[in-house]
Amino acid sequence: MNSCELTEETKKVAPKLVYLLKRLLDEWMGKKLCRIDQPGFNSAHLPLFMSIGKTGISNNELAAKMNVTKQGASKIVKELEAINMVTSVKSPDDARVVMLHFTPEGEAFYHNLKNQVMELETQYKKVVGTKNYETAIEVMLKLVQFHEENNCIE
Hints:
- By secondary structure, the chain is mainly alpha-helical.
- The protein has seven helices and three strands, in the order αααβααββαα.
- The N and C termini lie far apart (39 Å).
């Protein structure tokens, strides 16, 4: 048997499947992003960029939502500001809070990316069926929650 050949036993190892899906999804994002004329934007920006949303978010909320440090979120935000995708403004309610919003260019790019993701989800649903896809999403959400709650426990 070839060492790359998957057996029935090794096909269903969850961490391996998650790794493969992430790698293939990263490849898809790279190809899609390469087709978009947005110099300086890369796949590392994508999760935080898409989490800002149309209504805006504070840097602290963004860091918490993405489970990264405030410094990590700030670094990505600075890179997004440098390519005119995001702007930061002091909150009118609390001057200590910085709110992040899309620039007009960022909002247009957000909609473009969102449309591409929706198209991918449509393709996924054709492959596995809508009900199975929605079940898979629910399962992934529960697994993320499990790790968020338990990874800090010794």
